[in-house]
Amino acid sequence: MGSDLQSGARRTDIDTAAVVARCQRGDRAAFRELYEAHSSSLFRVALLMTGSREEAEDLLQDAFTNAWKAIGSYREETGIGPWLVTILLNRIRSWRRRIARRAAKLSFVPLDTPGPEPSYEDRVSDSVETARLLAALQKLSTRHRSVVVLRFYCELSVPEIAKTLGCPEGTVKSQLHRSLGNIRMHMDVSRRLAVVRADAQSQPER
User: Which domains are delineated in the chain?
Assistant: First the structure.
C-alpha cells in the first residue's frame, strides 16, 4: 500500500538553502524553482486529501501564494517540505470548514491517476485497486488521512509528522496504526463485495 501512495511522488534536487535565501530577498524566479521542485508532490497530497482535482489545483495555488507571503518567516530547521505541507494542510482545513458550512455531509468524486500506458490487464487491476485505496482513504477522518498521506506519500518521519501536525509522536504512531487497520478493513470489504456481485451476476436467471 505504501508504494501506491508513493508512486506519484517526484523530487527535484535543488540547493534548497540557496533558493530559499533568494526567495527571502524577493526573487520570484527562485520561488518558481521552489514551486517546480515541490508542486507535483503537494498537488498529489491535496488530491488525496480532497478527492477533487479542481479543488486540489486551487488549494495548491493558495498554498504557494501563502508560502510566498510567509517565506520571510521560514526557518531552515523546519525543513522546506514539512513547512510547505503545513501551509497546504492549513488551506485544506479552511476549505473543509467552508464545505461543512454549505453541506452537512461531504461527498467525494472518484479519482483517475495518470501514468505510463500499462497493459490492459494491468490497467484494469491497478485501477480497481487504486479506486479501493482511495475510497478507503476517504473514509478516514481528516487527521487520520493526513497522517497516512504524510507518512507513506510525503515520506515524512514520525517526528516530522508530529511537528507538522502539532501533536505528540505517540499520537502519530497510534493514529497511523489505527488508520492502516481501517484502510485494510475497508479494502477487504470492497474485495469481498466485488466477489459477491460477480457471483450474483454469473448465476443464470430463473
Answer: 2-202 (1.10.10.10)
